[in-house]
Amino acid sequence: AIISSENTNELASGSTDTDTVSNGNSSIQSIVDLEDTQSIQSIIDLDDIHPQNYYPQKQQISTERFKRLAQEINNIFIHEDPSIYYLPYTRGVNGKVVAARGKFWSTYVHQRKIYREAGLIKKQITVEPSTSMGKISQHWRKTTKLRLQLFKDETIADYFKKYPALRLQTGYILLDIDFNYLFKDKQNLLFTKWPMVSELLFKILLKKKDSLLKDCLSQEKYDTRNEDAKEVMVLKYLPLLLQSPLIKAKPKHWKPSKRELIDGFVLFIHDISDLNKKIEQRQTKREQFRIPVQPIPIVVGPYGHCQCFVSVDDVLYGVDVCFKIYHALNAKYPADAEPSWLFLQKAIYKIFTSQDPKFSSVDILIADIKAEQQKT
């Protein structure tokens, strides 16, 4: 083989941490075990691979460079498949993680272990426990571009492990920063647009010929003069204005009931003592159909006097934070609430991507809102 291969725990995890590199001895073993020195040297500069030259200013070997080196190996040794040397980290359609692999990657991980043990690569301490959120946020903004590039090759779990500040009660602030970087000028759209949109949706709700919806609305107790309470109630019943998604799973598909649709978008409970039970029921349902459990806003108590759990205490803010978490982490919407989140994405945040799922009811509801708006 042209490249030596070693199996390590780090390879199995597919993770890459941020390292600070110090000067070392140029006689350190090369990452490449040469069979044809003259040919290989036309592809890879050995000095370039040495850590003190290859990791300038705390950077790493990029996915693109790994791919390029694997392809260039194939250009000289035509019988060698590039995938033997490098396959990047991927996520399957079922969300299962497939770690980075190949001879280049295996040797890279093994060699970094040697460099660290020799003191050539030193771990960088990113966040001290006592560091204030203000200071963390300052550093977070400075590193946004690089972090998001590296995150493409990581799982969400690895990302949270690498940056412990995300697990703090105020960690959502950091994801909010990333969302604002990805989608400029979208930061406050929910707060500025929802009052008007919810008023139009409320009129559509009252006209809807749905027996369950009519029963639910007749049992609702809220102050009609309290606009905030009405806005929250519209959030609760928004899923009933949209189609129920067919969730393709094994061993059988799942088409959520209307009540499941309501609980899948924003979970409303009357008593805090019911919280753990509701969360466990939600997790059990998703385990049954082997779909990921995504974060959702949880509202406890009556409209106007409720608590919202996404580490915040305002319902609209909780929905806004959840939406930004999905996009900052490139996570899918909860399967049973996908139409509702897609509606907010298009109608409120005005975000449109080529990967957006197709739900005709979303486009119809947006058209209905425009029609109601023209009447006023």
Describe this structure in words.
51% of the residues lie in helices and 5% in strands. The chain is built from 19 helices and seven strands. It starts with 8 loop residues before the first helix and ends with a helix. α8 runs parallel beside α11 and α18 packs across α19. It is mainly α. The strands form three sheets. The protein has a three-stranded mixed β-sheet. A two-stranded antiparallel ribbon has the order 1-4.
What characteristics describe this protein?
two-stranded antiparallel ribbon, single chain, 5% strand, 376 residues, three-stranded mixed beta sheet, disordered N terminus, mainly alpha
Helix share bin: 40-55%
Total count of domains: 2
Mean pLDDT: 75
**Portion in strands:** under 5%
According to DSSP, the number of beta strands is 7
Report Rg.
Answer: 26 Å
C-alpha end-to-end distance: 74 Å
Number of helices: 19
Order of helices and strands: HEHHHHHEEHEHHHHHHHHEHEEHHH
Low-pLDDT residue spans: 1-58
Structural class designation: mainly alpha
Largest beta sheet: what is the strand line-up? 5-6-7
What is the subunit organization of this protein?
single chain
Shape: elongated
* Main sheet characteristics: 3 strands, mixed
Quick overview of this protein structure:
The protein contains 19 helices and seven strands.
List the helices and strands and how they pair.
Layout lengths: L8 H5 L5 E3 L15 H5 L4 H4 L1 H4 L8 H14 L5 H4 L4 E2 L5 E2 L4 H15 L3 E3 L9 H10 L1 H8 L4 H7 L9 H11 L6 H19 L3 H9 L7 H11 L20 H8 L1 E3 L5 H15 L8 E3 L6 E2 L6 H14 L9 H11 L11 H16 L1
